[in-house]
């Protein structure tokens, strides 16, 4: 992973999608062809007819797709890189986890840089080049979680892109985190976070007023964790909708991670909230839970809500099973919501790429094109539909023109 190949590159024998084949109105196959792809200065420079004899990097007929984006991670406090440890059944509530973190964070910080780098490498090995990472800001961590994460990201800056969310995991007022959150809002981060304002801080308005005002004053986005269901969950979502409606600067920069309350509404009420989310430009970020909680992703997308997807937990003290693989997340989405046709599977890839797709809905080629960022993943697959359905092996990753592996 550390042997990064920089500079301008030409790839030959690159498999690209060129269109759909139809049987009547049904897409039955994705057409592909081989090309040469040139990159320079972090961008795609040209796509030209394939020349097998050209002096170029041989892509061996691998399918080239947009590199993946993990839009919800916690690079600062995963257990990945430490000895195996399954989730404990003794910790049942968020406040139980807060108490555990207060005990363990001083220990975790000792190896935080090394473990963050290992976790980034795991994500990269599965085709991810860009990560939205939350980092703890709380009286136990102080600014150390951010400092350690910044060191790891600096070491990986040629091979991974990131955006950072200040995450008051231990509550803003439940612990004395408000002064720290005010300070970190002035730093080089991208989003102000929050967590379950009613159940942790005992109020929706007090913590949410602070979060939104800090975002407005410091030109940041908002991305809060909201596990609460029922009335408090819906009221928190509607609070953000109202604020984004009132303040245009928050539109497109405001997100609710998890938003489990949306999974427990009537269809009519979900439709109403979805329409309001779309109109206000408030997005939902999901790790795609299943079991008792199935998020209404198709309905949200029908209304035009931006639904981002991330792995969230990757073998940590909250969840044992995170795969660290965006293509596996796309396959999970396809299975949960019945996206099994060639066309539907090809569209599902967008959840792994933040909606950058080789073909538009009608099969017109739209990526790659000269001027696009050279963020590329090569897979052993015949098309994106197969890549999603089979979680095809990742063979190479390129970030801003740098060959990661």
Automatic annotation (TrEMBL):
It comes from the Bacteria. Residues 177-405 form the Amidohydrolase domain. SUPFAM superfamilies: Composite domain of metallo-dependent hydrolases (SSF51338), Metallo-dependent hydrolases (SSF51556). One of its GO terms (molecular function) is hydrolase activity, acting on carbon-nitrogen (but not peptide) bonds, in cyclic amidines. It holds the Pfam family Amidohydro_3. Coiled coil: none annotated. NCBIfam families: PRK06846.1 (NF005312). This is Amidohydrolase family protein. It comes from Chitinophaga solisilvae. The lineage of its organism: Bacteria, Pseudomonadati, Bacteroidota, Chitinophagia, Chitinophagales.
């Amino acid at each position: 992973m550390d042997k990064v190949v920089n500079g301008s590159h030409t790839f030959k024998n690159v498999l690209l999608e060129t269109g759909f084949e139809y049987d009547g109105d049904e897409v039955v196959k994705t057409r592909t062809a081989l090309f040469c792809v040139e990159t320079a200065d972090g961008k795609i420079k040209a796509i030209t007819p394939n020349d097998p004899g050209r002096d170029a990097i041989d892509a061996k007929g691998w399918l080239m797709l947009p590199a993946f984006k993990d839009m919800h991670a916690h690079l600062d406090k995963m257990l990945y890189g430490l000895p195996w440890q399954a989730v404990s059944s003794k910790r049942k509530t968020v406040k139980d986890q807060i108490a555990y973190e207060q005990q363990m964070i001083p220990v975790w910080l000792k190896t935080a840089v090394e473990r963050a780098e290992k976790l980034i490498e795991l994500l990269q090995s599965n085709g991810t080049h860009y990560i939205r990472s939350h980092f703890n800001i709380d009286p136990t961590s102080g600014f150390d979680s951010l400092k350690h994460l910044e060191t790891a990201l600096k070491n990986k800056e040629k091979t991974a892109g990131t955006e950072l969310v200040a995450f008051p995991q231990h509550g803003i007022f439940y612990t004395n985190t408000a002064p720290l959150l005010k300070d970190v809002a002035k730093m080089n981060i991208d989003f102000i976070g929050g967590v379950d304002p009613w159940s942790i801080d005992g109020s929706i308005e007090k913590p949410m007023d602070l979060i939104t005002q800090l975002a407005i004053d410091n030109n940041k986005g908002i991305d809060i964790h909201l596990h609460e269901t029922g009335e408090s969950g819906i009221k928190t979502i509607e609070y953000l909708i109202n604020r984004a409606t009132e303040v245009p600067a928050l539109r497109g920069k405001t997100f609710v991670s998890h938003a489990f309350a949306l999974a427990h509404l009537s269809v009519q009420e979900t439709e109403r909230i979805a329409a309001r989310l779309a109109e206000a430009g408030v997005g939902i970020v999901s790790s795609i839970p299943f079991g008792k909680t199935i998020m209404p992703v198709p309905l949200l997308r029908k209304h035009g809500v931006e639904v981002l997807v991330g792995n969230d937990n990757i073998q940590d003290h909250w969840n044992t099973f995170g795969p660290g693989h965006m293509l596996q997340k796309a396959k999970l989405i396809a299975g949960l919501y019945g996206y099994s046709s060639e066309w539907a599977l090809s569209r599902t890839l967008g959840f792994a790429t933040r909606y950058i797709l080789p073909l538009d809905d009608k099969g017109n080629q739209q990526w790659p094109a000269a001027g696009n960022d050279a963020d590329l993943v090569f897979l052993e697959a015949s098309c994106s539909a197969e890549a999603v359905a089979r979680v095809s092996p990742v063979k190479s990753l390129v970030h801003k023109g740098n060959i990661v592996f």
